[in-house]
Amino acid sequence: MNIDLRDKVVCITGAAGGIGRAIAKAFAWEGADLALLDRDKMGLEELAAALRPMGVRVQTAVVDLRTAHGVRGGMQTALAPYGGVLDILIPNVGALIAGPFETLESVQLQEAFAINFFTHVYACRVAVPLLKERGGGCIVFTGSDQALQPDAGLGPYAPAKAATHCFAKMLAGELAADGIRVNVVAPGMTRTPLVEVLMEQRAQQFGTDTRTAEQRELAQRGVPLARLGEPEEVAEAVLYLATASFCTGTILNISGGNVRAVLC
Description:
The protein is of the alpha/beta class. Helix content is 46%, strand content 16%. The chain contains 8 helices and 9 strands. It has a 7-stranded parallel beta sheet, sandwiched between helices.
């Protein structure tokens, strides 16, 4: 894609993770100024150092994204050098907290929703007034194929992601008149540190190496493309949704064909 975003300010939460890093690089390649939030100080510093030679401005904030105070303070800090201006918000925080319902403790349910849903609500509380002041803009959430077609044993992760999808649909309707578009990218299994840990666990369960475990997991899920997605492929989808001017309320499924419903 050949998109010029040199006059845009983009805020990405959860930027130091595998998908977050790829999203930040994709927007930096298009010339956007970046405000990056994460709790991983070293990861943020490494990412910023890699992006600045591309000729873009990068501001970072190390915060606890599970709290309203952390999200608000982090966004205000990272956006302050840009005069508090915001054009694009990418709420990308996520964590795989999962297990069969009967084994889950209440604290796990609360943590899953804090990380995978409420952090996005907090980010939008800050972002929406800024986008309105800008005369419009967009929000692109990182959702999940599990919100569309959940596998057994992936609660409360899947319900939390489904709540994010529903929240995005609601905002898309409410904010359209303000020129603010709201969309969701719903990745399937993607080659990130989180999934690599999962594959190591599967390898132990299956008694195989990680590569064999990966293929077995994909076969069990019936993924037609029979491979993991790459973070860069998710980033391409986010960039598209952020710049497609007639696209709002969309949930873009990029799961290698894992979700095969006629309607999602």
